[in-house]
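Dear Dr. H.,

I hope your travels went smoothly. While you were away I took the liberty of generating a structure for the chain from your last submission, since the lab meeting agenda had it listed for discussion. I wanted you to have the full record in hand beforehand rather than looking at slides cold. The sequence, exactly as received, is reproduced here:
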Amino acid sequence: MYIDIHSHIIPGIDDGAKDEIMALEMLKIAQKSGTSHIIATPHYVYGNTRYGFDTILEKCAELNMLAASMGIKVTIYPGCEVFVTPEIIELFEQRLVGTLAGSRYMLVEFPMMSIPPYTDNTLYNLQLKGITPIIAHPERYTEIQQNPEVLKSFIDRGILVQVNSGSITGVYGRETKKAVMRIIKEGFVHFVASDAHSDNRRNPDMRKAASIIEKNFGPKMRDDLFIRNPLKIIGIGK
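The corresponding predicted structure, in token form, is as follows:
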């Protein structure tokens, strides 16, 4: 049983599932590969995204009903992937963005090339609101690839880290795979998620990544990253 905290499975809302047919295929893949719970995390980019969190709640409920009607036994929770911006607290207070599955955790994405200078204050302000930021796929960011120790300063402040299963399996290339294995070895990672965008190349199947983690770091690390830590977000684990 895997718990996937990062996916773009809500149809027709961002660059993820293009329609209900694809969303259902993604859910079937998730179920077949052992994922029982999945958090829908559409992108939210300040100044560009035109929907609010209430829309995500509605569409998530609709997808749950559709999945149940098709006999798919995967529970979908609402969330979002927020592109880091100084306005993040304002967006949260206006219900334009939200946390993962109603928890006190928020998934935050950085630019690919460099980390903006306002990032430290932005994440600190979230923490002051009682929200724990989770950095989305840092192994894909050039600055982290060049200097993985950058993550340590965030983790030392209580910020958490999620990496993509596709990074572990090599979907994003050699440098990303090298970076992700290094930061896992250093203990800088708390969650592995699919970041699924479709039913093709970037799909929700996390089995291969879980097998790689077990082979390299043992079954406890596999269960912590794919099951135990994610369960805490959806309110099941301790």
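Two observations you may find useful: The first strand starts at residue 2 and ends at 7. The chain has ten helices and nine strands.

With kind regards,
E. W.
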